[in-house]
Amino acid sequence: MTRLPFRDFHIVQILKAFRGESCPLDLFISRYFREHKSLGSSDRAVIAESVYDTVRQWGLEANYLEVHGLKNNLRGTLPPVLFNLLHKHFGEEGALSLAEELNRRAPTTIRANLLKITRDQLLEKFAGRFAVRPCLYSPAGIVFEEKTNFFTLPEFTDGLFEIQDEASQMVAHQIEAKPGDHVLDYCSGSGGKSLALAYRLQGKGQIYLHDVREKILIQAKKRLARAGIQNSQLIHHEETKRLRSLKGHMDFVLADVPCTGTGTMRRNPDMKWRFTEEGLTRLLELQRQIFTEALLFLKPKGKIVYATCSLLPDENQMQTEYFLKNLPLKQVKEPFCCLPVQGGMDGFYAVVFERTNC
Known about the structure:
By secondary structure, the chain is α/β, with parallel strands linked by helices. Helix content is 40%, strand content 17%. Among the domains are: 1-56; 166-355, Rossmann fold, CATH 3.40.50.150. Helix 1 (6-18) packs across helix 3 (41-56).
C-alpha cells in the first residue's frame, strides 16, 4: 500500500476524525495540533488550509470539483435547506453569488487600537514588511493581503491591534458612546466589539462585559489587559446581584445575539453543513429572549443595538419588526447591513433602537 506524504496523512486523519464531531472545526484542528506537537508551524498552516478548503467543498460531487466555478454547480457548496432559504430571500442569482462567496477564503483583517495608535501610524509600522491596505469603511481597519502569524508580532503583544473583521468593527461603530457613558456588552464573547468601542469613552465611564460562557470571559480579560482598557468590568452569568444592580442604568447596550452565522461561513465552513431549519427556529426564539432581557438594563432614552452575523432576514429584518411591534422602542436610523464580498467584509446586521418608555 502506498504511504501518504507527511502532510497529506495528517489532512486525511483530521478529515476522517472530524466527520463524527460536533465541535467547531477550528477548535477541532487546534486540539489535533496540540496532540501532534511534532508538526511545525509551516506544516500546520498548510494542513489547516487544506482541511478548510476540503470542508468547504464537502457538498460537491467529485466531477463538480473539476469544473468548480460554474454557477450551476454552486448549489452543491451549500446544504439544500440553506440554499433554498437564500434563494427565497435573494433570488436565484443572489443565492448563487452568496454560495460562491461563502466558498472563498475570507480576508485577514485587523483593527488598530485607537487608544494607543492611529491607523496611519500602524500602517507606517507595517510598511515594507507586509502587503497591507486600509479597509474601505472602518476607520481603524487594515487588510493583510497574505496570511501572517500575528501573535508573534511586537505590535500585537504591545496591544496596538486586534484581529477583527471589518463588518464586526462596523457593528461596534454603531455604539456612539461618549466619555462617561456606561455600556453593557450583553453577549460579549471574548470582547471583540467592546475592545473596538472602548476608545470612544477615553477611559471614562464603564464597559461591562457579560456572557454565559466562563472560559470566553477569561479570554476577554486577557485581551482587555493587552489593549490597556482599565474602565471595564466582567460580569459572570452567576453574579445575579451584580447584574440586577445594572438594570435601568445603561446608556448603551449591545445585544450581539447567537445566530446561524451564515454571514461568516467562509471562515467557519463546517457551520454550513450543520445548518437546519429546526436550529434556525430555536435561535429565533432565543434571540427574542436575549434581546428582551438585555433591554431591561437600558435607561429611558438609552440606546440598544441588536446585531447578528447572519444573512437571513428571519434573524434580521423580521426580528427588527417584531421588536418594534412588541417592545417600547423606536428605530434610530437605517440598519447597518452587509453581505460577504470578495476581499472585504463578512455578512453582518445591526440596528439601533432607543428606549421610549420612562
